[in-house]
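Archive entry. Fields below.
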Amino acid sequence: MEERDRNASDLLERAIAALRTRGHFSAFPELPSGKIYGEGAREEGQRAFEAHLERPFRLDQPTSGAWLGGEESPYGFPLGIRYPAPDPDGMIKAALSALPRWRDCGVERRAEVCLDILERLNRRSFELAYAVMHTTGQGFVMAFQAGGPHAQDRGLEALACAVDLMRRTPARALWEKRVGRDEVARFDKRYRIAPRGLALVIGCSTFPTWNSYPALFADLATGNPVLVKPHPRAVLPLALTVQIARQALDDAGFDPNLVQLVVDSEGEPIAKSLATRPEVRLIDFTGSSAFGNWLEQHCPQAAVFTEKSGVNSVVVDSTDDFRGMVRNLAFSLSLYAGQMCTTPQNIFVPASGIATDQGHKGFEEVAGALVEAVDRLLADPKRAVEVLGCIQNPATVERIDRVARAAGSAVLRPSAPLVHPEHPKARVHTPLLVQAESGEEELYLQELFGPIAFVIEADSTADAIARAAKAAREKGAITASVYSTREEVLADMERAMLECGVALSENLTGGVYVNQSAAFSDFHATGLNPAANASLVDEAFVAPRFHVVQLRRPLGG
Amino acid sequence: MEERDRNASDLLERAIAALRTRGHFSAFPELPSGKIYGEGAREEGQRAFEAHLERPFRLDQPTSGAWLGGEESPYGFPLGIRYPAPDPDGMIKAALSALPRWRDCGVERRAEVCLDILERLNRRSFELAYAVMHTTGQGFVMAFQAGGPHAQDRGLEALACAVDLMRRTPARALWEKRVGRDEVARFDKRYRIAPRGLALVIGCSTFPTWNSYPALFADLATGNPVLVKPHPRAVLPLALTVQIARQALDDAGFDPNLVQLVVDSEGEPIAKSLATRPEVRLIDFTGSSAFGNWLEQHCPQAAVFTEKSGVNSVVVDSTDDFRGMVRNLAFSLSLYAGQMCTTPQNIFVPASGIATDQGHKGFEEVAGALVEAVDRLLADPKRAVEVLGCIQNPATVERIDRVARAAGSAVLRPSAPLVHPEHPKARVHTPLLVQAESGEEELYLQELFGPIAFVIEADSTADAIARAAKAAREKGAITASVYSTREEVLADMERAMLECGVALSENLTGGVYVNQSAAFSDFHATGLNPAANASLVDEAFVAPRFHVVQLRRPLGG
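PREDICTED_STRUCTURE:
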């Protein structure tokens, strides 16, 4: 075994072990540092990104012959990249004809190739970071981390879970059973892992890699060829991913058509017609509730895994670190301008105020401190744009305006555009904070994607918990957060979030935020409320992607 | 720990280990012997069965107040048992209110209670055997084995798989990550297994317990309350199961409404309205393709697991044990009069005949030997009725007549009624064997449930394999069988069955039959062709029944 192979296989075993302890584990360094990735890696990545601009993106896969592409960087320029338009029939045929060899090479060989893809992706992390930054609008560091190493870790997590589940069934068994006084039936049984079929992974515009890699690697590891359909506004990160995967497959002697890119346009979307094809047996989707629900309802031939929208809540009851709490919340609201499915939207505070290490704080004081903390965090424009990034979709800016107009005098903190020091045309906007009463559900009981948050006067802590649970039950939620110095309140919130299936963070006051979800330790979404029917990465996310076909043969007496 | 508990927990660990080796394992003795189950156990079981006849069956669960029941023993008498008619709203409410305590008691406690249910079922195996015999029409020994210990083994298998999968996620983790030069974030993380929600298990009329126990125990083990809806012609075995489970739950201090029986009638079926309830999040079904497909298409709120109908094939290429082959096939065709989803229907034999240890045999000779072997197997009526059992559904008798009329002179062996020595009114019919040509797909390329088989003249072995694969691909198949002395033929058949996802048995000539599927070793169905979207018991059958809800809390520096 060569050194590289030994390291790779060791990495896989460590990843598998990490899933059983769920402590901190990461395979791919998250610091965008030249010391780790090589001197000049950042500049090299930037040049590589820029080399893609204003050109056709070559992928040697079935195509209609036309070219598609209309990506615009939220930093204020068109990417000008054109991608080969799909030939769905040709792609499906090519994918299915690549299936048998990929299936037959076995679990361990597929795992090796998947690991190689992940390692190649990791080496291209800076290039991917710029691709993510200029499609999603994320700040550079976040684009690097979430789009690069963190996404790769999530992919490795899915790979590890898949390998571990597939290894549960032995390749072979000796079955011996006494079937008569002197007769023993002896059988040689063989078990073959068989993929479910063709897989379709539909990416989103805000986390094109992070939200797609778990499905991509779970599918590939279990033997399914994959069609990757990126969001038309965030194609490049997945186009690069597909290109890298195809190269790795080809180098390993497999048909690169095991991974193909299906590009469409907002005017002529292809997802519905593709998702309902009888050949498509697995669908993973991240995006709107409307389309996620449509997929769940209209694709009975496929196992459908969705992550949709939701309304995440914070319940503030009391704290022994008031300053840490508001600072932590301010960052959570501001990070990537709230364009995360994990960003809190509704912050419930009892109308009578809360007990803190700085004495009693009235509702207004808590709201005021939160506004002040956001202002302070974003005071330096250079730092602010790194935290906020850009608004991915112009519709989000309209949404901010609409909510602000409707709120009128209830606006606690207006959203404002911010001029990016390096990208004057970038679409940067600070968070809008609105005050509401807990009865005003028509205002806050809906997902308002983007930098929009409500500070809500609850009748009591119990009312706050009940409202947070109702939002999760009816609209879905991926995260919840609670601040309290009282164990009984924490227990009440825990029980409520268990009932509606929401991951809960308690008393976050330091450098970990409710928005963050760490591979190998944190489950992302639960699959138990309307925000998602799946969880990254639990066994239910992986196991339906394969079955077992067995052969049995009697052995001579 | 008491002796009983230690044995129980040891049994669970052995069952879990057995799934990883897939050798022979059985927890519940399959011999209906007084030496094992106690002297007089059979008579006691018969008396217990008879005590249910002509009476109301008491279950203290929500009911409309009406009584339902029209079961007829295929052995020729009405059971006269009346069951409480369901109150669906009341039952759903009761089930959901029982959920939290069952969820919160944890994996190991639920496993203990499930094991206790299985052991109680095992002690009632003779009573269950008579209940299965007089609803399904199986012969006594089969009713005992398949309805009792084998079903219990399948339930234990599902329980073991569920416990093993749930144990993969630890209850707690310490997460430590360096987040700055001198700062380490330390978190206490807790993980709670959360059930998917209310489960519905829809039983079939031929194997009411065997086909339901995997779902019942997978659901219960993962924390889901279960509504058990038996087939209206085979209620008693599941009514007893539910009664026993409720008693065990009650004795363990849990709400018995975690398991409820939903009885309906053929005139007013309830499954559709129940299956589409938003509260129902898991559905398991065994039965017709029409209804199975309906469930897959109309219940997007639920994970739907189906086992439907199919067309199983045998490919005969050559054999070194001609006598063993025809004897084995004759038994497979006759067992329970072909009313198994695993019974072969289409036996492909090359028109040019086959090589055997008795020299070359022409097609006619092979067909003739098969007819003769069936005749010989069923020559003694006393033995014949034990093998054949009764025809469960009168519609099956009509089907035999219809196929025989259509076949005309192609009938190789007519089906005939047989007078049961002990039950003169019993509906006993011997197998119909029909000759066909491989082009006559309109005859044999459809499921003809019951004792109906075709001996089909194939152009060649390759044609036979291709036809078998086509049937599996288009109509579904749960089993396949091949006879050949040539490794390359076996390899071709293996490849073909892998492609269409069918478990393959090779060269069965002894006391193991293609119809049989052993818990802990054989996967029953694959989920990869139209006969079933699920496999008993693989990880995909169990994992979607639960998710994980996590809590995280910072630990003091």
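CURATOR_NOTE: Residues 276 and 299 of chain A are 5 Å apart (CA to CA).
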